[in-house]
Design brief:
Blueprint lengths: L5 E10 L2 E11 L4 E5 L6 H8 L7 E6 L2 E2 L2 E3 L5 E3 L2 H9 L1 E4 L11 H11 L5 H14 L15 H14 L4 E5 L7 H16 L3 E6 L26 E2 L16 E4 L11
Parallel strand pairs: 3-10, 3-12, 8-9, 9-10
Antiparallel strand pairs: 1-2, 1-4, 4-5, 6-7, 11-12
Helix pairs in contact: 3-4, 3-5, 4-5, 5-6
Bound molecules: adenosine-5'-diphosphate (ADP) and magnesium ion (MG).
The site of magnesium ion has 3 residues, from helix 1.
Length: 267
């Protein structure tokens, strides 16, 4: 059996005295699409940032295909920070898309996608531009390659951000409220791109505050719309209605929690 793409065991994280994550257990298989729903402040972004170690977790393990991220366990049982180069290499495998796109305003769409390929992957300019163009084409934005972010709609900017992440050829993608900042009419185009990624087998962990619509599966709890306020995590094995806000129809597994107090699990 292959190792989970993402595995969290007993993960905890505090900011000073404020405990944000406690005992989080989560397993996501390769090609699985998981949507984690919780209200603002419940620790969703912190959880995602622990997965790629943008935020160091305090206790527990975060593993990507079995490999601990951020730390190295020494033979004497102590744990030390991972070598910076090894951490960089692991992070390259993990794409991340943010709520507010985080594009460089002074660069065109193609510049935004090509620049990390040059800086991080070390591709020559022409190869980076070719790959960037291919990624923009994939998200339906070839015609906007030379537009600046200020001349793109929110949905288009988010698609550029997805193209930028995809260009790095990640093994998994993290989405932090990818449609929350969008006008309702622009949500669909971003969800379509996410759906196509899911259908191609990308492993995706999506966090959102939105309960898009009740899952349709008979296995879903009848009170599932109330689940977002539940102390216990609930999960459904079904999908969210196509075109809805939030995770979209690609989610195979939906989990909710008010706080990541250990109730979240990938069981
Ligand atoms: N760098 C930080 N320093 C201090 N507190 C933080 C930091 N990042 C997040 N928090 C706090 O942790 C809690 C969870 O934040 P966050 O993970 O951003 O939640 P969510 O993404 O679910 O809205 C919030 O109370 C937030 O204020
Ligand atoms: Mg957040």
């Amino acid at each position: 059996m292959s190792l989970p793409m993402i595995e969290l065991n007993g993960v905890g994280k505090s900011f000073g005295a404020h405990e944000v994550l406690r005992g989080v257990e989560l397993k996501i298989a390769k090609s699985e699409v998981v949507c984690l729903i919780g209200p603002s402040g419940s620790g969703k972004s912190t959880l995602l940032r622990c997965v790629n170690f943008l935020e160091p977790y305090d206790v527990g393990d975060v593993r990507i295909e079995g490999r601990l991220i951020g730390y190295e366990d020494a033979p004497d049982g102590t744990r030390r920070s991972m070598n910076a180069r090894k951490l960089r290499d692991m992070r390259r495998e993990i794409g991340m898309v943010f709520q507010h796109f985080n594009l460089w305003p002074h660069m065109t769409a193609i510049g935004n996608v090509a620049e990390p390929l040059r800086r991080v992957r070390g591709l020559p300019a022409n190869e980076a531009a070719d790959r960037a163009m291919a990624m923009l084409t994939r998200v339906g934005l070839a015609a906007k390659a030379h537009a600046y972010p200020s001349h793109l709609s929110g949905g288009q900017q988010q698609r550029v951000a997805i193209a930028r992440a995809l260009a790095m050829q990640p093994r998994l993608m993290l989405f932090d409220e990818p449609t929350s900042a969008l006008d309702p009419e622009l949500v669909g185009e971003v969800l379509e791109v996410m759906k196509s990624l899911a259908s191609e087998g990308m492993t995706m962990l999506i966090v959102t505050t939105r309960w898009a619509s009740p899952p349709t599966s008979p296995t879903a709890s009848p009170s599932s719309t109330k689940a977002a306020s539940s102390k216990r995590a609930r999960r459904a094995t079904s999908s969210i209605t196509a075109g809805s806000r939030g995770c979209g129809s690609s989610c195979r597994r939906i989990m909710t929690a008010t706080a990541f107090d250990g109730a979240i699990s990938g069981r």
